[in-house]
Amino acid sequence: MRVVGTGLVGLAFGFVMSRVGFTSWDLVHGMFAFTEFHLLFTFMMAVTVLVGAWWGLGKALPGRPPTAPRGMHPGVIVGSLLFGAGWALSGGCPTIALAQVGEGKLAALYTVGGIVIGNWLYSIVHERYFKWPTTTCLDE
Question: How far, in Å, CA of 116 to CA of 102, rounded?
C-alpha cells in the first residue's frame, strides 16, 4: 500500500510540474537566463513552503528532527557543478525528465539514460579514485 501511495504522490507531483511549465525546455532555459520569471517565482515559492514544512516536521515529530549535520567533501562541489550543467543542457533535473517522459516527450529518455549512465560511471570512478564519504542521514 505504501508503494501505491508513493506512486500516487509522484504522479500528482509530475502532473503539477507539467501544468506549471517545468517540463518545457524553453521555460526552464528562460528561468536560468532570467527572462522567464514565472518558473523562477514558482521555484522560490516551492522552496519557501518546503523549508517551512521541514521545520514544522522537525517540531512535530518526537525524537530527532529530520535534519542531520553532514560534512562537506570535494564531491559535493563537483557533483553540484555536474548536476547544474546537466540541467542546463537537458532542460531538466531527474524529476523533470521523468515528467517529460510521462508527457510523451521521448527525447527525455536521453536525459534519463544520461542520469543512469552518469550515476553508474560515478560509482566506478568514486570507488577507484576518490573514496569520499558517501554516508547519509540514514547511515547514522
Answer: 17
**Residue (of 22, 6, 27) closest to 98 by Cα position:** 22
From CA 58, how far away is CA 56, in angstroms rounded? 5
Helix and strand counts by DSSP (H, E) for the chain: 6, 0
Domain that holds residue 128: 2-62+72-139
Q: So what's the pLDDT on residue 138?
A: 47
* 137 has a pLDDT exceeding 50: no
Give domain status of residue 67, yes or no.
Answer: no
Sequence letter at residue 83: F
Number of domains in the chain: 1
In a domain, 55, yes or no: yes
pTM: 0.70
